[in-house]
Structures are given as C-alpha cells and as structure tokens.
Amino acid sequence: MIEYQLFEAGFCRHCERMTLKNGRLKQCEYPAICALIKHPKQGYILFDTGYSNRFYELTQKFPFSLYRRLTPVTLKKSLKQQLEEKNIQASEIKAIVISHFHADHIGGLNDFPNAQFFCHLDAINNISNKKGIKALLQGFLPGLLPKDFYERLVILKNEIQLESNLAPFTRGFDLFDDKHLIAIPLPGHAKGQIGLYFKSAPFHDPEQNTQEVFLVADSCWHQEAFKEFVFPSNVTYLIHDNKEAYQQTIRNLHHLFNNNKTIDIIPSHCQHIRTRILEKQ
User: Fold this and answer.
1) Which terminus of the chain is more exposed, N or C, with fewer CB under 10 A?
2) HSE-up of 170 (CA within 13 Å, CB side)?
C-alpha cells in the first residue's frame, strides 16, 4: 500500500484572472504543493520540493532577479524543515519525481543528498546547458540543481499502456516496474512535464479505503479548470510551452474527471488543495 501526504513549501502571488479566465481581479496566493510518498519497498519518495531559501539567494542579481519580481515568493518553512518536524530526515528520501524544472518545483533538490531524480527525457533536454536569459525564459534556475545532479538522474524509460480508468490518458511510465507509481506525460505547460498516479491511503489513516490519486503538477492552476473546463488568460500562453498541447491536457483532465469521479486530481498550486492541507495540520 502506498501512503502519501501533501505539503506546502512556499507560495507566490498573482492576479487570479490570469490563471482562470472567470477568476477574480485580485491578487491571490498560489501555494507550491509537493507530496511525500511512502513506497512499501522503495521507502520515502517526493513529488517535487517546492521552494527553499536557495531561491532567494539565486534571485538576488539580474537576470534572475526578474523571476522574484514577477512572482513574489513567501517561504515560511521549507519541505525539509517540515519533514524534520515529522521525524523524517532529508537523508531518508530515496527518490524525487520532478514534474518539470520550474523553480517552484525544484527549489529544494539540494536538501536531499541521497535521492535519485526521476524525470522525462524531454524535460532534461530542454534545460541542459541553459544559462542566463535562456534559462530564465524557461523558468529555470541552474543553481537549484545539485552538483551531482546528473550522477543521480534517472530518465523515465519503462513505458506502459495505462488502464481504462485513466482514459483518455493512454501511456505512462512505471517508475519501479511494480505498478505502484505511474508517471504520466502532461504536455503544454513545460516540455517533458509529468504527473504522478497511484492508489493510496493518507499517512494519518492508512486503514482508510484506497483512493486513486493523480498529482497533475502545472497542467492547470485550479481544480475549476478541469471541473468546469475553463482555460487561463491568453496572456499566460507567453510562459507555457505550447498552447494547443496545454489546452488539450486540460481537455483530457476534464474528460477524466467526468469519466471517473473516484480519482483525486491534484494541481500543484490550487487554493482548494491548500485548504485541505491546512485542515489536516
């Protein structure tokens, strides 16, 4: 049985109307949500890491100072600190599934010295050798990668056919060849972006009935996007990798939501998910 718990590791601020066409014309907080997963054989695994103080250090000078100005960040506790409060040491984390390489998803990679890094080949190819403005345009801060990042890197290879309960998604990657953790491509927002699907029970109640969980990263910013089939403002396509692919991914999530209401679809910056995290603290 897989167990999991969601965490918020910092947040940034944007106008809600930017990320949801029918949203409010007011500044909202967008949490950087990540997940701690306990695999029965592999041990502790993370899905993304949120921010860390290293983000502040790396965005002091131009051009990366533009990043923190465009997305003002607040970090109260890093994921590492929150895990330590639960008596889980950074050294116990055996793997980190990287949804994509934007700074709010990889900010804490340096905090976990024993973790392997799982990601899609297209994501790696997109950030390799990028520096300065070219890196910034991809939302990528090269300094967030550990010095031994490429020695610990695992490229997703074990591609499988997905079961019908995940339609219209058809292909994924079985991380450990045991069908416990399935990475699923979610194109459009960033090259090589992946989500993570598993069947699980929460840490606080492992005897609870098994729940299907789909962590969908930045395939959308709000659950309303796939529930009500609402796209973001057209301005946001300046930062997305591919508009058509992004909209198709939301369309696929909308169909999945309508076809299988048992799956808990979790975007990485959704205020509803943040509320759920706060209620369980």
Assistant:
1) C
2) 1
Closest CA to 268 of 226, 206, 223: 223
Maximum Cα–Cα distance for the chain, whole Å?
51
Q: Which two tokens stand for residue 128?
A: 């390799």
* DSSP one-letter code for 61: S
Tokens of 273: 């998910």
- Whether the ω angle into residue 31 lies within 30 degrees of 0, i.e. cis, is no
User: Low-confidence residues of the chain, pLDDT below 50?
Assistant: none
In the chain, domain spans: 2-279
Residues in the chain: 281
What pLDDT score was predicted for residue 80?
Answer: 98
Q: Counting beta carbons within 10 angstroms of the beta carbon of residue 33, is it exposed (0 to 12), middle (13 to 18) or buried (19 or more)?
A: buried
Write down the architecture of domain 2-279 according to CATH: 4-Layer Sandwich (3.60)
What tens digit of pLDDT does each residue of 249-260 get? 999 999 999 999
- Find the DSSP H helices in the chain: 16-19, 53-58, 65-70, 79-85, 103-106, 121-127, 132-136, 149-152, 223-227, 243-259, 271-279
Condensed to tens digits (0 to 9), the pLDDT of residues 140-160 reads 999 999 999 999 999 999 999
Q: What is the pLDDT of residue 71?
A: 87
